[in-house]
Specification:
The chain has 6 helices and 2 strands. The chain has 182 residues and is mainly α. It has a domain of 101 residues: Metalloenzyme, LuxS/M16 peptidase-like (Cytochrome Bc1 Complex, Chain A, domain 1). A hairpin with a 2-residue loop joins strand 1 and strand 2. Helix 2 runs antiparallel to helix 6. The radius of gyration is 19 Å and the shape is globular. The two termini are 23 Å apart.
Length: 182
């Protein structure tokens, strides 16, 4: 839900208005039962600390100026209704159903009633619950965990762009276990 409301505003503010980078987008993702909200900014012009600060400011401003507004509350109810209809739409063919079920198998979740669970959560979600979630998990310093990934070209020297950032050097493998920055 968070990315649904933030996608357009994120692109407009960070890409179009601030011109932080050519690639700017946000999305939500769940993997093995752990949900995440991600903001991706690819930039050659700005240091990671500037991008991080700009992103934090955008998320905070969006909450104050948009999420807390009455217009948002009205739009929220309508958006929930459309999302609920989209989720409960029957599979059009066997391929759609197979893809949906295989997504559950390949993700390791094996929750074949995932759509029913999502609809149940949507039915119980109100605008105040959304506002609390956003304030706690998107803005809350104590309850969120962050991972900042910085990739430099081969001719650039690595200097930690923000305090408490650990240099893991060159990672040989495509997956590594890294502690999340709080």
């Amino acid at each position: 839900m968070v990315s649904l409301f933030l996608q357009d505003a994120c692109f407009t503010e960070l890409r179009t208005n601030q011109k932080l980078g050519y690639v700017v987008f946000c999305f939500s993702h769940a993997y093995q039962g752990v949900g995440s909200f991600q903001v991706i900014v690819q930039s050659q012009q700005f240091l990671p600390e500037h991008i991080l600060n700009s992103t934090d400011t955008f998320l905070s401003d969006f909450y104050r100026q948009t999420v807390l507004s009455q217009k948002f509350a009205d739009d929220f109810v309508q958006t929930l209704s459309v999302l609920r209809q989209t989720l409960t739409k029957r599979d059009l063919n066997l391929k759609d159903k197979t893809d949906r079920l295989w997504d559950q198998i390949l993700s390791g979740q094996n929750q074949f009633n995932f759509v029913d669970q999502q609809v149940s959560v949507l039915n119980s979600l109100g605008v105040e619950g959304f506002r609390d979630f956003y304030n706690t998990y998107i803005l809350g310093e104590d309850s969120r965990r962050r991972l900042l990934i910085v990739v430099y070209g081969k001719d650039k020297e690595f200097t930690p762009p923000v305090k408490n950032l650990v240099d893991y050097g060159q990672l040989d493998q495509t997956s590594a276990t890294l502690p999340l920055q709080s």
